[in-house]
User: Which sequence fits this backbone?
């Protein structure tokens, strides 16, 4: 499981690029790195370990490093809101022996800890390396040259890690937060060897105009000059930076140079370079050379206006993200960072907030290289805030480590009232770029970063309306609520608001930890950590695709394809830096397989279209060819492709109405013999294979038998919110069909806003054909305003459902305020009982509402399923009833389902968030539906085939 050994890495240009321009061997003037631990969750090195309390405590054993010791079977699990006294005594002792290369005797050696939870006391060969470090998420180091044994002898590293800090403000900031808290050396540990005279660190500001400013922090009394070279990412020399302006002060040199013809950095084109800086003595000998990866970009926060990058005002499409993995806790890996950033980019996000602490450095590296804006944050949780003395150290450690990442645009001084305002000015001390500081969930400086506001707050009519509206958390995604649900309403208003800078969803992934003390159970601590767009292992929930569509940087205006379709689509370029002509559009006219057929979908016609020349923010039109016979296609799929060849989104448009689609696909003329009888309370209709029984009292389907085998569809159609009595029931039988018509009593449907009396009646009609097909016609009086459900339902035992196949929107279920993110085509889902964010994480969830139904094949467990065809447009199908999540105390993300098992509806409910009921989340979240017509009946026609 663990790897034992040391890894030696040369840090500098030696391994990647040459030394053009120097004319001498400077290989001894670089930085070397030797890992004492592994590099991440999948690469551990075994150390000796002693745990003081809980599981496997009171004895020396071994543990893999880096890791959270709970995940290695030690100590006790704690969520941040657990009582502190339960964990205050828990500490771990680590021992590890190592040696260093003999040629390091002329080097300056440091030991670097990327992250330790929480207080760390470090000894080398029995001697303290320095003061105890406090704070879990921050990189720290000690100079240990004088503590090492010479000539390659073995050295002893000892570390004591206290899970709970002796600094109470650290505990309030980190250990009493709303997330899992762990113990241990959870990030890598390594040695760093530098030349005796060296550059300790460098802070760089590379502007969009090519201007480079750098502060070099030196420990090099004999340094006389500095050289700078710019290299491409593959190591090719781009240019030697001449005419360097150099200002020297005690221990700090300030470099000013100009790069020419550079490509700027932004999330859409994350262009990066290597900047090599070398200090020389008066004879031109290289004393030390370092390289830093940089991106040229300029950030401006303009009061009363917005946040600008390279002169472009930005709408942040962001998410909050913790460093987390189920089996390893806070210990992650570069591979996981790549996976997470790729998923964010795939959702068309352009930003991420580091909630609520600085991430692994490799996550920031990936944000730089793949392209995401970053808010980097110091960890605090509500109040009281960090005390100033320890807070100053933490701010310094954060900024010094992360200062050169072009992805970082802003610093966040804590979270939700946890900020210490005495620290606000400290960021600029260490940040050469002087990036702005924000207070998440606060009106501070130039921004209003309110959290979890209701939709009406976007009126922005408060006393701080001149501030940039920049919510760092909104639409809290507990279970299946929030995230995509409500986003369309929020985003369309935010996009059009000049002073809205976008915002950040809460949050990226469910933090379900694998409990090593509970047989591997996935635990989200109730509803505290079930907040993700994806599951703990990256399982994609429905909101993933809703966000992908709503945040697409290419906006295509909604439209319907019918006979008069002219091929024109109105589009808007919502990129910030990409001309639309750099993207392409693939148009495919699709034909789908028939019901009961294994025939795959096929493309009838396709073309590749270049988007028109449209700068960011511009609107225009594009045209799709209409080939001969396009009307015979089932759907048009439009796929936008970005300049790198990746899908932005695929939109889908049915070409025919349901009635047109089925017109030549259903055969009512097949031969058969019909008989009908009335006996007692039943009306029985039989064909060659089928026997139907209907209630004589109300026309409900009572029983379906096929060749003597029961098909358990029954007890329908029951009309929702309907208690009218039957007025008449008629049976008409001919050789061609048997019709059973139920007419209900007329009732007063007078709207409350008028005194004109309107009487209406609802009608249900069954038609049985000789070949066994069964038509259902349901006619309901139209209503302008519908408060309940408009539709009807049947019973079908859940135990008999094995799966379903359908033509319609899918593969995910929908809510009224989360309709986007689906695609119209044939889908097939197996039964599951997933409760989103709580059990199984088997997506798509099976149970729920599905939109744009054309046909549905219900797969029965005992070959007792059936197929139903919809002839009516805009029909929703309800498949069973999802279980309610166990900890939704306020009922905001538990949606009320109507009675029955399989239903057909003209309207469906919305879903809320952890902090809001749906009706405060915008127009799509309202419980009432406005159909706009009470003169015409609402008709639903279905055909059943058994």
Assistant:
């Amino acid at each position: 499981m663990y790897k034992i050994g040391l890894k030696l890495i040369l840090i500098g240009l030696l391994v990647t690029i040459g030394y053009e321009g120097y004319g001498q061997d400077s290989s001894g003037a670089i930085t070397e790195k030797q890992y004492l631990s592994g590099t991440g969750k999948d690469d551990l090195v075994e150390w000796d370990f002693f745990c003081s309390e809980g599981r496997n405590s009171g004895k020396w054993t071994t543990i893999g490093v880096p890791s959270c010791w709970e995940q290695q079977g030690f100590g006790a699990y704690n969520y941040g809101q657990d009582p502190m006294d339960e964990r205050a005594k828990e500490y771990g002792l680590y021992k590890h022996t190592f040696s260093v290369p003999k040629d390091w005797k002329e080097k300056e050696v440091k030991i670097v800890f990327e992250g330790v939870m929480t207080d760390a006391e470090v000894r080398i060969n029995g001697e303290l390396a320095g003061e105890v470090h406090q704070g879990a998420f921050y990189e720290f180091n000690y100079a240990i040259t004088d503590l090492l044994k010479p000539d390659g002898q073995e050295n002893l590293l000892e570390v004591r890690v206290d899970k709970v800090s002796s600094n109470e403000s650290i505990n309030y900031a980190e250990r009493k937060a709303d997330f899992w808290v762990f113990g241990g050396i959870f990030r890598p540990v390594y040695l760093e060897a530098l030349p005796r005279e060296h550059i300790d660190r460098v802070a760089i500001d590379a502007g969009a105009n090519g201007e480079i400013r750098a502060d070099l922090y030196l420990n090099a009394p004999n340094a006389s000059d500095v050289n700078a070279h710019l290299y491409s990412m593959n190591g090719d020399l781009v240019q030697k930076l001449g005419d360097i302006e150099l200002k020297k002060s005690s221990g700090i040199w300030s470099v000013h140079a100009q790069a020419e013809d550079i490509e700027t950095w932004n999330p859409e084109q994350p262009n990066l370079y290597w900047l090599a800086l070398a200090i020389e003595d008066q004879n031109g000998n290289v004393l030390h050379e370092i390289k830093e990866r940089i991106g040229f970009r300029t950030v401006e926060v303009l009061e009363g206006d917005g946040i600008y990058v390279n002169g472009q005002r930005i709408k942040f499409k962001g998410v909050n993200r913790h460093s987390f993995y189920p089996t390893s806790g806070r210990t992650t890996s570069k591979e996981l960072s790549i996976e997470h950033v790729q998923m964010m980019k795939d959702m068309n996000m352009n930003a991420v907030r580091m909630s609520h602490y600085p991430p692994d450095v490799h996550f920031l590296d990936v944000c730089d290289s793949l392209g995401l804006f970053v808010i980097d944050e110091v960890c605090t949780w509500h109040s009281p805030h960090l005390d100033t003395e320890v807070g100053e150290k933490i701010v310094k450690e954060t900024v010094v480590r992360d200062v050169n990442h072009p992805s970082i645009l802003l610093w966040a001084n804590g979270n939700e009232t946890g900020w210490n305002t005495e620290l606000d000015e400290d960021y600029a001390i260490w940040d050469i770029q002087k990036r702005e500081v924000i207070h998440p969930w606060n009106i501070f400086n130039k921004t209003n970063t309110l959290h979890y506001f209701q939709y009406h707050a976007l009126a922005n009519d408060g006393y701080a309306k001149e501030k940039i509206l920049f919510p760092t958390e909104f639409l809290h995604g507990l279970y299946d609520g929030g995230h995509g649900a409500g986003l369309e309403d929020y985003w369309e208003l935010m996009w059009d608001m000049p002073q809205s800078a976008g915002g950040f969803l809460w949050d990226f992934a469910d933090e379900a930890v694998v409990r090593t003390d509970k047989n591997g159970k996935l635990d989200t601590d109730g509803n505290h950590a079930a907040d993700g767009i994806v599951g703990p292992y990256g399982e994609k929930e429905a909101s993933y695709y809703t966000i992908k569509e709503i945040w697409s940087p290419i906006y295509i205006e909604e439209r319907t394809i019918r006979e008069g379709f002219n091929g024109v689509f109105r589009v808007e370029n919502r990129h910030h830096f990409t001309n639309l002509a750099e993207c392409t559009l693939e148009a495919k006219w699709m034909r789908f397989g028939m019901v009961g057929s294994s025939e795959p979908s096929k493309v009838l016609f396709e073309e590749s279209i270049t988007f028109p020349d449209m700068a960011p923010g511009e609107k225009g039109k594009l045209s799709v060819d209409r080939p001969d016979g396009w009307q015979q296609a089932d759907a048009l799929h439009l796929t936008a492709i970005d300049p790198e060849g990746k899908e932005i989104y695929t939109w889908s448009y049915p070409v025919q109405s349901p009635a047109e689609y089925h017109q030549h696909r259903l055969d009512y003329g097949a031969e058969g013999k019909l008989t009908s009888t009335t006996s007692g309370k039943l009306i029985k209709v039989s064909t060659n294979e089928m026997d139907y029984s209907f209630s004589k009292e109300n026309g409900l389907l009572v029983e379906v038998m096929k060749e003597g085998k029961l098909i358990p569809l029954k007890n329908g159609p029951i009309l929702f919110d309907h208690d009218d009595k039957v007025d008449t029931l008629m049976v008409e039988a001919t050789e061609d069909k048997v019709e059973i018509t139920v007419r209900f009593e007329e009732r007063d449907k007078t709207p409350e806003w008028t005194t004109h009396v309107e009487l209406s009646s609802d009608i249900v009609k069954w038609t049985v054909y000789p070949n066994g097909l069964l038509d259902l016609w349901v006619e309901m009086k139209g209503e302008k305003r519908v408060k309940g459900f408009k539709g009807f339902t049947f019973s079908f035992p859940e135990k008999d459902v094995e799966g379903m196949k359908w033509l319609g929107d899918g593969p995910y279920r929908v809510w009224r305020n989360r309709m986007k993110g689906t695609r119209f085509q044939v889908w097939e889902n197996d039964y599951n009982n997933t409760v989103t964010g709580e059990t199984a994480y088997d997506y798509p969830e099976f149970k729920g509402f599905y939109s744009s139904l054309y046909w549905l094949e219900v797969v029965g467990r005992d070959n007792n399923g059936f197929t139903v065809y919809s002839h009516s447009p805009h029909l929703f199908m309800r498949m069973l009833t999802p279980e309610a999540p166990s900890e939704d105390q306020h009922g905001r993300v538990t949606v009320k389902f109507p009675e029955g098992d399989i239903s057909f509806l003209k309207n469906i409910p919305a879903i809320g968030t952890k902090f809001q009921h749906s009706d405060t989340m915008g127009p799509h979240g309202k419980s009432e539906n406005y159909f706009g017509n009470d003169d015409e009946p609402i008709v639903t026609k279905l055909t059943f085939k058994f």
In short: Residues 448 and 464 are 8 Å apart (CA to CA). Residues 563-656 form a domain with the Immunoglobulin-like fold (CATH 2.60.40.10).
